[in-house]
Specification:
This protein has helices at 7-15, 21-26, 33-41, 44-49, 69-77, 94-104, 140-150, 171-177, 181-184, 192-202, 216-219, 224-235, 240-250, 255-266; strands spanning 59-63, 80-84, 109-111, 125-131, 151-165, 190-191, 204-210, 272-280. The protein has 281 residues and is of the alpha/beta class. The protein folds into two domains: 7-215 and 268-280, 3-Layer(aba) Sandwich (Rossmann fold); 219-265. Strands 1, 2, 3, 4, 5, 6, 7 and 8 form an eight-stranded mixed beta sheet that branches. Strand 1 (59-63), helix 5 and strand 2 form a beta-alpha-beta unit. Helix 3 packs across helix 5, helix 7 (140-150) runs parallel beside helix 10 and helix 12 packs across helix 13 (240-250). The termini are far apart.
Length: 281
């Protein structure tokens, strides 16, 4: 299959589709960029991410920074932020981040580069943050090694919202369902074990693996209530009466946590999202 477009062209195309505006806003591709970044900083996803951040005030590298929404959020939290992005575009790349930094007045240092070959000295950052980045890596293990090299000993690496598949043969189904892959061909997904092995080989201790339905880090912009309603609908086979009853049961104390444990074993959706909280050794 040929992919003639770029990432920028794919996002521009998506923004022009009237039936995709909910996805555009959920992915923070909407303009004005400053308002999108402010919305991300106020989101349930970012609130959950803050629980994993080290003490503010240190140095932070946002790898694969895209439009800069996470760079903005990290700077608002008080980190000294460097944003690394390979794409130079004004929509989803370096020029977008520079514009966001200028408009917001935040001192975000913007650099061009890929995660496999980071243009920084050893042990430079207290935190490395990567949102939906590792599944784009050309060499997953090399990326993890490079990130470990620039992280200070004992520093935190957060890799959030990474696509996971259960079997190699599930990759095609995921790519076929992705709204932008057909436009530019840049999406990918790995087995959970591949992520964990690459992180370990890179020198990290994985302190927490956050499963798809465990935290807003992964399931945002959905809410717990939305997830409960979806599970209830499936259990009720579309019946509105049974759905309402199932929702009421799922919201009883302790029931939802039990359901989540069960779903971990039966949730095999291609491309579901996992996050990883790691510490450099």
């Amino acid at each position: 299959m040929n992919f003639p477009g770029t990432w920028e062209q794919a996002v521009v195309w998506l923004r022009q589709q009237p039936d995709q505006q909910t996805l555009v806003e959920a992915a923070y591709y909407d303009d004005p960029l400053l308002l999108a970044a402010m919305r991300y900083h106020a989101s349930d996803e970012w609130s959950a991410i803050k629980e994993f951040l080290p003490k503010p005030g240190g140095t932070a590298l946002d790898v694969g920074a895209g439009r800069g929404i996470a760079s903005y959020a990290l700077a608002k939290e008080g980190f000294q932020v460097t944003a690394l992005e390979p794409d130079e575009s004004a929509v989803v790349g370096i020029e977008a981040i520079r514009g966001l930094a200028a408009e917001s007045g935040l001192p975000i240092d913007v650099r061009r580069g890929f995660s496999e070959e980071l243009p920084f000295s050893n042990s430079q950052f207290d935190l490395v943050f990567a949102r939906s980045v590792l599944h784009h890596a050309r060499d997953l293990r090399k990326s993890c090694q490079a990130i470990h090299r620039v992280l200070k000993p004992g520093g935190i690496f957060l890799a959030v919202r990474e696509h996971v598949i259960s079997r190699p043969e599930d990759l095609d189904a995921f790519l076929e369902s992705h709204p932008l892959h057909k436009m530019y061909g840049g999406e990918n997904a790995f087995l959970l074990r591949q992520y964990l092995d690459s992180l370990s080989a890179g020198g990290f201790r994985v302190e927490r693996v956050v499963s798809p339905l465990e935290s807003p880090v992964n399931f945002a912009p959905n809410t717990v209530a939305m997830l409960q309603e979806e599970v209830a609908r499936r259990l009720a086979f579309g019946s509105s009466t049974r759905t309402a009853a199932a929702v009421a049961i799922l919201r009883l104390p302790g029931v939802w946590s039990l359901v989540l444990r069960a779903l971990k074993f039966i949730d095999h959706r291609p491309g579901r999202l996992y996050s990883f909280v790691c510490r450099g050794l």
